[in-house]
Design goal:
about 15% strand; four-stranded antiparallel beta sheet; about 475 residues; binds pyridoxal-5'-phosphate; 3 domains; Aspartate Aminotransferase, domain 1; alpha/beta; single chain; seven-stranded mixed beta sheet; Aspartate Aminotransferase, domain 2
């Protein structure tokens, strides 16, 4: 949510209601917007905060978010044991740092980075780190591209380098973090619009927008809008052709926020990762299909050459040489421990099984929804276990409701299925999207389908169109931009 204003409530709203059962003095007054003068007993505080949080949605019914909403008790316990560990304190918690290092190696291996020992020295092998999520990871990946572009321009002796405006080429379907990156670093975003039938970036569209000031191309695995994978290999080949024709040599960053933990297990033969030579860096969210609770992301560079040295800060806490690259300083260590736990606990086959189960449920759901009648699928969940669908004939007089009405109706039953409009140039296409995560079983899918059928039936039977909801921009809709 946005920034919070300092609004002081007046009247009866000014104080927090504490249930009299929890307190001895019934008249205990607790101001809502200023710190109370005196404290209260821990159990009273616990109950008061819990009572407020009851109003939050049920995370298991939230089909809007990509972020992990369930971990097993052992993982919770491990995270609780690590609450006091600060990721940055590498000298105090060298083992946590070691687990981070192993996770980076595991991901570099899953993403087919050329390994040390395979003709490469330690100095040339992949490098990476944990972050608070993909947003920070994308910021770091983007900065590396920007710094490398500057170095290229300076080395090439470009006249007036300082006056050139760098640009980044990507689909209009990118997650908001890339627009933030461009705004914060004053990079021109070159967004390739969506058109019906082309819902994400393609090779020719990307190459057509590149010039010598392009710091890189972002390819998404897969799109937040509809769960589809962007064709990384095709984009790379188009950039090869551009270079062969005398154009610039442009690196690719793969935003694998979700797909970085899906494609290695479900689409092992798809060339999207470091097997594609032009891919310089990849990010993923440990807290999405990496199956860890919120607070962890990853970014890996193909080799040290892809990560400019002057972005790396060296800290000698350990007496040795501890290079770090991050926007944050202090950060919880428990998420990294939980990521390593998941790798050990599940192994390759375990991850594959979890992602396969999600995909099976997603495809079952999309198949049933397609067969229902009023809807048309844009994707079917066969790439990410995520799919988007719209009303088959929104302009027909037979359909008097919108996807926003469907979303609203499902919400009455507790289901969070977001409805939103696509970005440029498809703002008039409104869709519903379902993200299937670990723990969303086929039984729950059946319940959702029954509710969806019932609500669609009721909506269709309405004599008058319901009052339209205002379809705001996708990024304004709370719950979407996960
Ligand atoms: C979720 C997402 C992000 C942002 O990731 P966080 O881990 O939530 O910061 C970036 N890119 C894509 C494609 C995403 O799906």
């Amino acid at each position: 949510m946005p920034l919070h204003k300092n609004v002081q409530d007046a009247g009866p709203e000014a104080d927090l209601d504490i249930n009299p059962v929890y307190v001895r003095e019934v008249q205990l007054r607790v101001p809502r917007n200023s710190i109370p003068r005196h404290g209260m007993l821990p159990d009273t505080a616990l109950q008061a905060v819990r009572d407020e949080l009851i109003l939050d949605g049920n995370a298991r019914l939230n089909l809007a978010t990509f972020v992990t909403t369930w971990m097993e008790p052992q993982a919770r316990q491990l995270m609780a044991e690590c609450f006091d560990k600060n990721m940055i304190d590498k000298d105090e918690y060298p083992q946590t740092a070691e687990l981070e290092r192993r996770c980076v190696n595991i991901l570099a291996d899953l993403w087919h980075a050329p390994a040390a020992g395979a003709g490469l020295g330690d100095q040339e092998a992949a490098v990476g780190c944990s972050t608070t999520g993909s947003s920070e990871a994308c910021m770091l990946g983007g900065m590396a591209l920007l710094w490398r572009w500057r170095a290229r321009r300076t080395a090439g002796g470009a006249a007036g380098v300082g006056a050139d405006q760098p640009n980044l080429v990507m689909g209009a379907n990118v997650q908001v973090c890339w627009e933030k990156f461009c705004r914060y670093w004053q990079v021109e975003p070159r967004l390739v619009p969506m058109v019906p039938g082309r819902l994400h970036l393609t090779g020719p569209e990307a190459a057509a927008r590149c010039d010598e000031n392009t710091i890189g191309v972002v390819a998404i695995m897969g799109s937040t809008m509809d769960g589809s994978y962007e064709p990384v290999l095709q984009i790379s080949e188009a950039l090869d052709a551009l270079q062969a024709a005398g154009g610039p040599d442009i690196p690719i960053h793969v935003d694998g926020a979700s797909g970085g933990f899906v494609a290695p297990f479900l689409h092992p033969d798809l060339d999207w990762d470091f097997r594609v030579r032009r891919v310089a860096s990849i990010n993923a969210s440990g807290h999405k299909y990496g199956l860890v609770y919120p607070g962890v992301g990853w970014v890996v560079w193909r080799d040290v050459a892809a990560l400019p040295e002057d972005l790396v800060f060296r800290v000698n806490y350990l007496g040795g040489d501890m290079p770090t690259f991050a926007l944050n300083f202090s950060r919880p260590g428990g998420n990294v421990a939980a990521q390593y736990y998941n790798f050990l606990r599940l192994g390759f086959e375990g991850y594959r099984g979890v992602q396969q189960a999600c995909q099976d449920v997603a495809r079952y759901l999309s198949g049933e929804i397609a067969a229902m009648g009023p809807f048309e699928l844009l994707t079917d969940g066969s790439e990410l276990p995520v799919f988007a669908f719209k009303l088959a004939e929104p302009s027909s007089s037979a359909v008097r409701y919108t996807v926003f009405d469907v979303s609203e109706r499902l919400r009455q039953r507790g289901w969070l299925v977001p409805a939103y409009t696509f970005p440029q140039d498809m703002q008039d296409t409104a869709v519903l999207r379902i993200v299937v995560r670990n723990g969303f079983s086929r039984d729950m899918a059946r319940l959702l389908l029954a509710d969806l059928r019932a609500q669609v039936h009721l909506l269709a039977a309405q004599p008058h169109p319901p009052a339209p909801l205002i379809p705001g921009s996708i990024k304004d809709r709370q719950g979407f931009a996960h």
